[in-house]
């Protein structure tokens, strides 16, 4: 059984807000989404930030590569103006900021570990270790009874049955490192095209799910993944008719850019 939300806002707020920003998370909330996918990369000082591209310039006003900058540098850079003037001043968030925003608002996270080339192991290890630490901190708040009274909305969310994040990655090495650093966190293998040896790949990293490009999924493959006992998640499904079709194939969940067309309660 798929224990997570079934409709997930891609990169925070899909196509309605600048990707991978706190503004995107707020936009998703405004559309009723309490489930989000976002991308996490290490800055040059090893601190994870929420960004999709290794190269600056597309969504972030800057030149160069993410590993060339500290997290503090990146967190001063504009990540909203490219989308629209209304979002100018929105900056690159740290993973810590996004994680705690989501926990505070009861938003479930599919954390995509997105290493810059050469940083696969470090990114997987860091993201998993921090995620486990922050979850433990929140749980300790619950155990100590500090939820609410001490201004710990994260602990309150955890106490209310919020499902723990699911870590996913296209990088096998990142998933292996995540497994070693925090074996108790759920992992998923991400594939554009699902390779023939997907069973072995999922087994090697102890994955609970396979995430893939819906455009390359077939009903036969979907059936095989489900028959093998794995969760099946697709990206990025933007047409309601297609969403209904792949659900019939057994797809458990998907992310979408069209949070305006495909609501969190889509059927
Ligand atoms: O995690 C699913 C999806 O986000 C993977 O592709 O390029 O949007 O990160 P991308
Ligand atoms: Mg992604």
Structural class: alpha/beta
Bound chemical compounds:
SN-glycerol-3-phosphate, magnesium ion
Biggest sheet: strand arrangement: 1-9-8-7-6-5-4-2-3
DSSP strand (E) fraction?
A: 15-25%
Indicate the overall shape: globular
CATH class: Alpha Beta
Mean pLDDT: 94
Q: Percent helix among the residues?
A: 25-40%
The total count of helices amounts to: 9
Give the biggest beta sheet.
9 strands, mixed
- Supply the number of structural domains: 1
Uncertain regions spanning at least 5 consecutive residues: 148-152
CATH architecture: Alpha-Beta Barrel
Protein name: Glycerophosphodiester phosphodiesterase
InterPro entries: GP_PDE_dom, PLC-like_Pdiesterase_TIM-brl
EC number: 3.1.4.46
Pfam families: GDPD
């Amino acid at each position: 059984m798929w224990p997570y939300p079934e409709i997930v806002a891609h990169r925070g707020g899909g196509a309605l807000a600048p990707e991978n920003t706190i503004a995107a998370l707020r936009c998703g909330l405004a559309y009723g989404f309490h489930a989000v996918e976002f991308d996490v990369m290490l800055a040059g000082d090893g601190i994870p930030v929420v960004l999709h591209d290794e190269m600056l310039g597309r969504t972030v006003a800057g030149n160069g590569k993410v590993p060339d900058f500290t997290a503090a540098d990146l967190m001063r850079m504009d990540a909203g103006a490219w989308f629209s003037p209304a979002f100018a001043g929105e900056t690159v968030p740290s993973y810590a900021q996004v994680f705690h925003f989501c926990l505070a608002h009861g938003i479930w996270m599919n954390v995509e570990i997105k290493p810059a080339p050469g940083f696969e192991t470090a990114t997987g290890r860091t993201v998993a270790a921090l995620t486990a630490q922050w979850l433990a901190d929140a749980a300790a708040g619950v155990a100590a009874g500090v939820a609410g009274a001490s201004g710990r909305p994260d602990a309150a969310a955890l106490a209310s049955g919020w499902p723990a994040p699911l870590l996913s990655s296209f990088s096998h090495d990142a998933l292996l490192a995540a497994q070693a650093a925090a074996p108790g966190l759920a992992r998923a293998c991400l594939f554009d095209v699902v390779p023939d040896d997907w069973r072995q790949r999922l087994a090697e990293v102890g994955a609970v799910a396979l995430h893939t490009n819906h455009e390359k999924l077939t009903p036969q493959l979907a059936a095989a993944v489900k028959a093998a006992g794995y969760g099946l998640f697709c990206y990025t499904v933007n047409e309601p008719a297609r969403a209904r079709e792949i659900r019939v194939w057994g797809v458990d969940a998907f992310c979408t850019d069209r949070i305006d067309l495909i609501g969190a309660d889509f059927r």
